[in-house]
Structure of DUF2007 domain-containing protein:
Amino acid sequence: MTFQPAEDRIVVLESFADPIAAHMAKSRLEAEQIPCFLTNENLVSLNRLYGPASGGVRLHVRQQDAEAALEILRYETVPMAVSHPNDAPEPDIVHCPRCDSTDVAFGPATRNTYSFPMLMLSVLLGYPLRGKRFHCFHCQHEFKRSEAVV
């Protein structure tokens, strides 16, 4: 029986909800010559609902490289959602209709905002289909552009 030295052991560095974000972090580490690999990528890609149950897409490194990898990823922000420039509305300042805060972002809805056809399609596909809405980070209210105070 052989024992691995502590510095050669593999550790989980970070877990990601999105496979794209995990690949971006992996590419950043590989660019700095730090060997790493991903697990659970196919499971999470196959069905997004399995992600939280399986722990997400995990990024593994050698224990001896863990501190350097954390330092590299600390200053590199890896987006959790990829958005396209065409998805964003025009850049005027939007205020929350509930609390009048300007701490508002546009993106996929976090609450169930289904119409009946969208609910049925979501059930058939096996993952939620959500539209894009504004989200207030101050009061957690989600709203459409028509409800926004500009």
In short: Residues 114 and 120 are 9 Å apart (CA to CA). Strands lie at 10-16, 36-39, 57-62, 104-108, 132-136, 142-143. The mean pLDDT is 77. The chain has two domains: 6-75, 85-147.
